[in-house]
């Protein structure tokens, strides 16, 4: 360098080059937990659940705040929540003749998170015969009345039987439990269960000259039964019932049943508030032999979605979907699961296979509306849980104490009762 003194002169670095300059940090102020929960509660149930899973304080705030618990519901989400399924209520008889006793067991699926592990069968002290279950409440038939109870809280309310119950209703009537979310005026706070509910009694009458659905509703708000109402059933053909109302499916405030007459198979949809019935004819491909010895089952492939008819036939579970736009059923079914997949799951879980000739005996027991699980019985004492959305077997159980004639009912916890019990690893 001319005139230089034998070295390079250090030059100042231009801004923006070399090492990044430290910028002043602006910390965003955190919102109070009550505000965070209130925001989450106005989105959907799944978001509120994930918010409650972040810490114990959030779960405690949710459990102690009745307004947040009231907002915690699933009707505005299309997601199944499998952990809501607490288990299978099993009513069976033990002993013979005069020593025969009625027992109620819970096949508990919440004991372990390992799907391959055997569930625990334990006796339930509540007693009674399970008629229906929905959103954490159970409807039980006692000796002289009905009872609606919440096993999570231990609260219950007695429901008297309707006066002068007709003989036809005693034999063919179906009870349906409808549960409110406690948002309308807080009427549920004064009921025995702490939540508003309705018990619907329905009976289908079919003859050559009369075709109607008779309903009667008990309301927890009024603690009384309504007058019996006869509703016309348009498009229901036939003069004789081969199989009356099946297990009810409740979707979006409407109750769905399947029935079989001497002219075909039908699906009934009762709009409860409007007291109207819509009838659709099932496709001819739905098996109707043996008067539905293996009864079909109504389900949904997504929470709150359109109904699906499930049928176990020839070692397969088939599904007929219904169009949401036209309400017509697809003419041909889809294969949901086969016996081979169930046996493979049994092998991986270390279970003992039933005899070869009984592996094709599949029976659809129930569908749990919030968790999306279908209980399938193989042979006499092997039970499999099917995740209907993924169409995969997720759990199995076998116990010889569960006799073939036992009655089964799903027990799902209410979401607001379930949230305080889990941790962040649950979701």
From TrEMBL:
Region listing for Disordered, in residue ranges: 1-27
Any one Pfam family match given in the protein's UniProt record, by short name: DUF7595
Occurrences of domain DUF7595 (ranges): 130-416
Protein name (database record): DUF7595 domain-containing protein
Organism: Dichanthelium oligosanthes
Upper classification of the organism: Eukaryota, Viridiplantae, Streptophyta, Embryophyta, Tracheophyta
